[in-house]
TrEMBL record:
Gene Ontology molecular function, alphabetical: glyoxylate reductase (NADPH) activity; hydroxypyruvate reductase [NAD(P)H] activity; NAD binding
Protein name: Lactate dehydrogenase
Membrane-spanning residues: none
PANTHER family: 2-HYDROXYACID DEHYDROGENASE-RELATED, GLYOXYLATE_HYDROXYPYRUVATE REDUCTASE B
Taxonomic source organism: Thalassococcus halodurans
């Protein structure tokens, strides 16, 4: 039996690459060099399956004409880097990897909150630079999280997991906005109050953590007007997608003291990060580490492989993107 041809666009965990090499005629990216949209478009005519990541761009322009490829197995839960409508119109099935990165991404959201509240990034830089002169009563005073109000925008799996951690560890009050009703079963023991708008969450919160999908109507959702609702003591956390924040408006708000600080794991146009953000001490910057644990990245890769196995066996794929 001839094995299906599969393209993996970036370097994946070794155990997953070994699984794919066993079961498919797979082309791996040993150098981990990003592919251009044009290269991925050409691959659609050569491979049965394309397995991209968030670092790839799959615009509508590459989904023209007939393709050999039948399925896009996306390594990641977010898929706003893929023109889903164009891919579906070209007859391709799309899958993603929901669920398996919930805990790790929530952990990073809490990490950003703690680093920002306790000025940990500033302190670490001071020690490494050799400029620390010793303990003193007013040195790098931050703020405690206990008793503060955490606002969640997007109360899906990751939003719930973040809120659960914040409430259990720090006793934070939780308010949230979600476009659809969230069941108490989904939230478990979490005590949280649903508000009727994003604006209401921003006004009510000391810390706001963003967990909505990127792209479409959510692009630049957190704009200058919404940032003004936060207030000068509020902190903004983003582990969702970089484009959900108007980055220029965020820079202006930070520079002018409209908000206290921001913790960012994602950026609009990454890996490019504006110099203005890098130069500010009241910003914590991480290089998109949300799912970056060995266990989670292996789970993500195996979920992609599970979807490919099901598709080529003629079964329903476990994680379709509608």
């Amino acid at each position: 039996m001839v094995k299906k041809k599969v393209l993996v666009t970036r370097k994946w965990p070794a155990s997953v690459e070994a699984r794919l090499a066993r079961d498919y005629d797979v082309t791996l990216n040993d150098t981990d060099t990003p592919m251009t949209p044009e290269e991925i478009g050409a691959a659609l005519n050569e491979y049965d399956a394309i397995c991209p990541t968030v670092s790839d761009k799959l615009p509508a322009s590459i989904f023209t004409g007939d393709h050999k490829a039948q399925i896009i197995g996306n390594f990641g839960v977010g898929y706003n880097h893929i023109d889903v409508a164009a891919a579906h119109a070209a007859g391709l099935t799309i899958t993603n990897t929901p669920g398996c990165l919930t805990d790790c991404t929530a952990d990073i959201a809490i990490t950003l909150m703690l680093m920002l509240a306790r000025r940990a990034g500033e302190g670490e830089r001071e020690v490494r630079s050799g400029n620390w002169t010793g303990w003193r009563p007013t040195h790098l005073m931050g703020t405690r999280l206990r008793g503060k109000t955490l606002g969640i925008v997007g109360m899906g799996r990751i939003g719930i997991a973040t809120a659960q951690r914040a409430q259990a560890a720090f006793g934070m009050h939780v308010v949230y906005y979600n476009r659809s009703t969230v069941s108490q079963d989904a939230m478990g023991a979490l005590e949280a109050t649903a508000l009727d708008s994003i604006d209401a969450v921003l006004k009510a919160s000391d810390v706001v953590s963003l967990h909505m999908p990127g792209g479409g109507a959510n692009s630049k959702m957190i704009d200058a007007e919404k940032l003004r609702l936060l207030g000068p003591k509020a902190m903004l956390i983003n582990t969702a997608r970089g484009d959900v924040i108007d980055q220029d408006a965020l820079i202006h708000a930070l520079q002018n003291g409209q908000i206290a600080g921001a913790g960012l794991d994602v950026f609009d146009g990454e890996p490019n990060v504006p110099e203005a953000l890098m130069s500010m001490e009241n910003v914590v910057l991480l290089p998109h580490l949300g799912s970056a644990t060995t266990e989670t990245r292996e789970d993500m890769g195996n979920m992609v492989a599970d979807n490919l196995d099901a598709f080529f066996a003629g079964r329903d794929v476990p994680n379709p993107v509608a």
